[in-house]
User: What shape does this take?
Amino acid sequence: MAGGCLSCFFAYTSVVLLGGRLYDVEASRCDGVIYKKVGDAVELPSCAPTKGVTLPEWKYGFTLTTAEKLVLRNNQFKGRLDLNPTSFNLTVRQLTRQDSGVFLFISDVNGTQSETVTINLRVYDPITKEPAVTFDSSWDAEKNSCTVSLTCSSTSDSSVTFSWTVRNETTSGSTMVYNVTPQDGDTGFTCTVSNVVSEKSKSITAKCSNTPESRKCRKGFNLNNYFLNQLLSQFKKFNSVFKQPMLQFQTSKKIQNVALFTYKKAF
Assistant: This one.
């Protein structure tokens, strides 16, 4: 089936959504999981009544507090803890990934031991860099459309997930294959990389067209490679001119004209 090759134009934009995740909240119940970013502060709720509490104690593999005082030990939390003497809530400042773990609050109320409050704290590195997006595109003569293959990657050390959004539809995964027709016009693709405390996104815009200028190309035509190859071909024609010092200025003007001509031809 006759058809030209793909002319598919991509524009890049970056969208930063850092630290605004729904999961970056403290637990609404006494027991539960709290997600926080490195460097944050967290207040761990004791859920103790305001009166009648005796022998309150926070533990994290070892005793952190006893009665209404902090236990001063040479441990990882030294200098980073605050204990509320009324509510017995425990605040941990300047969180590190090593602070992740289970915190226990034990107390007696009116002489009877209360149920132990268990809080699982999870501290993650925030995603600080936008994802990298790579793509390949080709013209499908049978479908009269451009097939766009996209890949998203991240340099984040923490566990992350990927998703793609196009035309208000979102799919999970780091790769996507999508068909764009010339009638679709500009089509936006957004890759989002996220963990439970942060996310960042990168967007590109694709436009598919089957133009007469592209008919000499083969299936799998890549516009960027086409432009570079055409420019290199034209430069080689002036190779002999480069060796003549007296024609440097003239050569410079020719290079500019060739670049402009090739750019217009490609686009």
